[in-house]
């Protein structure tokens, strides 16, 4: 193969491609090129075993796609284990205090992280008295959905 006037063996080409894909992945940390590095390694092995260029290219693409499809979801899931909750998501699971009673099918008010929130009971038929502790189950629009605090 000739690149910029230089004759390069396919083994060197695949080795350089592997290094480039790994370096780009290291710089971006976005799981974008690591799959292609795996394909390039297999193509390098095929080149060293004497396979033709067409076989090497097909192996590169097939292995890259198989790695991408079969492992991307797993890696993305594993790498997001330390994602920090922000904004409203950070309120879910927190303890709050009822400052205006929550009655069946009627919202009340809770004090949550120093702010007043309109709140409804998770079970719409429950009453939660003023002063009782509740746990935030979810946020729906501008209302907190709460349940009695159980320790």
Automatic annotation (TrEMBL):
<keyword id="KW-0472">Membrane</keyword>
<keyword id="KW-1133">Transmembrane helix</keyword>
<feature type="transmembrane region" description="Helical">
    <location>
        <begin position="42"/>
        <end position="69"/>
    </location>
</feature>
<keyword id="KW-0812">Transmembrane</keyword>
<feature type="transmembrane region" description="Helical">
    <location>
        <begin position="12"/>
        <end position="36"/>
    </location>
</feature>
<dbReference type="Pfam" id="PF01957">
    <property type="entry name" value="NfeD"/>
</dbReference>
<protein>
    <submittedName>
        <fullName>NfeD family protein</fullName>
    </submittedName>
</protein>
<dbReference type="InterPro" id="IPR002810">
    <property type="entry name" value="NfeD-like_C"/>
</dbReference>
<feature type="domain" description="NfeD-like C-terminal">
    <location>
        <begin position="88"/>
        <end position="148"/>
    </location>
</feature>
<dbReference type="InterPro" id="IPR012340">
    <property type="entry name" value="NA-bd_OB-fold"/>
</dbReference>
<dbReference type="GO" id="GO:0005886">
    <property type="term" value="C:plasma membrane"/>
</dbReference>
<dbReference type="InterPro" id="IPR052165">
    <property type="entry name" value="Membrane_assoc_protease"/>
</dbReference>
């Amino acid at each position: 193969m000739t690149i910029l006037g230089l004759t390069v063996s396919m083994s060197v080409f695949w080795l350089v491609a592997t290094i480039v894909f790994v370096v780009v992945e290291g710089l971006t940390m976005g799981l974008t090129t690591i799959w292609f590095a795996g394909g390039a390694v297999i193509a390098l092995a095929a080149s060293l075993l004497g396979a033709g260029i067409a076989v090497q290219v097909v192996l590169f693409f097939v292995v890259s796609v198989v790695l991408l499809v079969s492992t991307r979801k797993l890696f993305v899931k594993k790498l997001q284990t330390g994602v920090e909750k922000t904004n409203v998501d950070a309120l879910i699971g927190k303890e709050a205090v009822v400052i205006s009673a929550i009655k069946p099918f009627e919202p009340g008010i809770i004090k949550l992280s120093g702010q007043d929130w309109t709140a409804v009971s998770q079970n719409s038929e429950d009453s939660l008295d003023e002063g009782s502790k509740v746990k935030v189950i979810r946020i729906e629009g501008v209302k907190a959905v709460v349940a009695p605090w159980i320790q």
